[in-house]
Amino acid sequence: MVNAIPHKLLKRASFSQCPPPPGSNTPLPKLEVSISPDPPVAGQKVKFSVSGKFSKDITEQTKLGVAFVDTNQNPIEPPTVVDACTGSGCPIKAGDSYNQTAEVPVPDTLPNQYIIGVAVGDSESEGLGCAYTLVK
Questions:
Q1: MD-2-related lipid-recognition domain spans which residues (predicted)?
Q2: What predicted TM-score, i.e. pTM, was given to this entire model?
């Protein structure tokens, strides 16, 4: 008998490119995102590692946002927004590699299926990069 031990598949987050923003046919560049722990644990913190290259500079006005939403795209809690660029590493010139980690609180209650959205942008643009995953 081979592989007779029961095996439970865990939820895993595999991030994909976001669809185009409203009013556009062009999607934003895909962010590379990994999280730990994977899957997130309700009521705890999750570490996001985010990277990408953008066509515009990342400045002190640029933000990194993380949102947990249900499958109807209703926010489970307000999104977490942090500075995408701070200190001596700022600004990051267009075309250079962007790498950031951020610890984000996970909502206390998560539905069986939910979406995590991650975006980088500022008030002067519709966004610079985006990724999302359906956790089920």
A1: 15-135
A2: 0.88
